[in-house]
Amino acid sequence: METKKWGLVVSVVFIIAALPLVLRVKDPREIQYALIRELLKPSIPKLLPGSSSMRKKEARIFGVSPNLTTCHQSSSPSGFRIYCCPPRSESDEAIIEFQFPDPSSSPLRIRRAAHLVDHNYLTKYNKALSIMKSLPYTDPRSFTRQANLHCLYCTGSYNQKYSNSEFSIHRSWLFFPWHRMMLYFHERILGNLIGDDTFALPFWSWDIPEGMVIPEMYMNASLFHGERDFSHFPPNVVDLDYRNKESGLSPEDQIRTNLALMYRQMVSGAKTMELFMGCPYRLGEAGFCNSPGTIELAPHNTVHDWIGSNSNPSREDMGAFYSAARDPLFYAHHANIDRLWEVWGDIHNEMTIKDPDWLESYFYFYDEKLQLNKIKVGDVLDTTKLGYGYEEVDINPWLNARPKPSVPPEIARPLLKSRHLQHPLQPSNHFARILDGSLTYRVSRPKIGRSKKEKEEEEEVLVVHGIDVQGDMFVKFDVYINVVDETTIGPRFSEFAGTFVHITSGAESVSESNIEAKRKKANLKLGISEILADLKAEGDQDIWVTLLPRSHGCINTTVDGIKIDYLK
Ligand code: C2O
Question: Which positions fall inside the Tyrosinase copper-binding domain (predicted)?
Answer without folding.
Answer: 170-187, 327-338
